[in-house]
Amino acid sequence: MSTGVGVSSCCISGKVQEGTPKGHVETIGGLNTYVSEPEGGSKAKTVIFFTDILGWEFKNTRLLADNYAKAGFYTYIPDVHNGDSLPVSFLDNAEPNLKTKEQLTMIDSVKNTAIVGSTMAPWLITHRESVSRPIVDGFVNAVRQIPGTNKIGAVGFCWGARYAILQAHGRKESESGSDVGGVDAVYVCHPSLVTVPGDFDPVTKPLSMALGTKDSLLDQKKRGQIIDFMAKKTDVPHEIRLYEDQVHGFALRGDWSSDKDKKAMDDAEEQGIEWFQKYLS
Question: How many CB atoms are located within 10 Å of the residue 3 CB?
Fold first, then answer.
């Protein structure tokens, strides 16, 4: 099990995007939830977003959920942090885009790391697996009970990506004999705090991953371990795409003023939508 205390400032780097989310808020399974509906309102293809540490109210996440809804998916973003997500203002202390990052002095880098570390460590302990996994499983269970729901996909970013991967283990049985959690397909972007092979060995559902080659939380060695391990799971549909020069958070918090970063964001969005169009149909 991941200890969840090794996240650097890169986990919360990035930009807040322009635009106004079009969805609405409901309470589902006891959690505040952003809901974005496709045209016609069909729940036959449902997608749940498991967020990074900025949580369910982060505008970029809601705008992306709206795009999934436009593509035909009934989309949910639950507040799995129970009101304890880190504020968007914390981005000011986080790792900047790659160009700016390369120009930072050592003192600036050390200062950013200290600020982020003093905030992140206690947050990650509060939201450790023993606390967060039952919340995630419970929300999936609640969505399965919603009339009209058929297949469910999970999208995960950073902290939430690991919990999406755990949902790719499939449904498990509780002590009372009822099914718990588990979805039909998973797509994750720049996962953090994952263990190899521990988190990947039990994967039984289609899994797609978008990984940046400059991700300080998923370095070349760990990326290689994931690629090598998943290559052996020939019975599970999977894909891993590498995004050149992209840092942690690129799929959700990239810099739209950079053509390369904007293209990476667009390509990562398309990757997830195509995966679910294939495996939730």
Answer: 11
Element at 121 (helix H, strand E): helix 106-126
Residue 10: both structure tokens together? 């890169």
pTM of this prediction exceeds 0.85 = yes
Assess whether the previous peptide bond of 21 is cis (omega < 30° from 0). no
User: Is the CA virtual torsion 248, 201, 47, 259 positive or negative?
Assistant: positive
**Contact of 55 with 65, CB cutoff 8 Å:** no
Cα separation, 20 vs 4, whole angstroms: 32
Give the tokens for residue 188.
């994750």
Q: Which two tokens stand for residue 81?
A: 């942090």
Contact present, 96 and 247 (Cβ < 8 Å): no
- Rounded to a whole number of angstroms, the CA Rg of the chain reads 18
Residues β-bridged to residue 28: 31
Q: How far is CA 109 from the centre of its chain?
A: 26
37 SS3 class:
coil
- β-pairing, 179-180 vs 172-173, is antiparallel
Q: Indicate the average pLDDT of the chain.
A: 89
Convert the pLDDT of each residue in 112-171 to its tens digit: 677 677 888 899 999 999 999 999 999 999 999 999 999 999 999 999 999 999 999 999
Q: C-alpha 10: how far from its chain's center?
A: 15
**What is the dihedral angle through the alpha carbons of 185, 127, 175, 170, rounded to the nearest 10 degrees?**
10
pLDDT, tens digit, 9 for 90 and up, residues 3-56: 344 444 444 455 677 789 999 999 999 999 999 999 999 999 999 999 999 999
- Who contacts 170 (Cβ-Cβ below 8 Å, separation ≥6)? 182, 202, 204, 205
219 Cβ neighbours under 8 A, 6+ residues apart: none
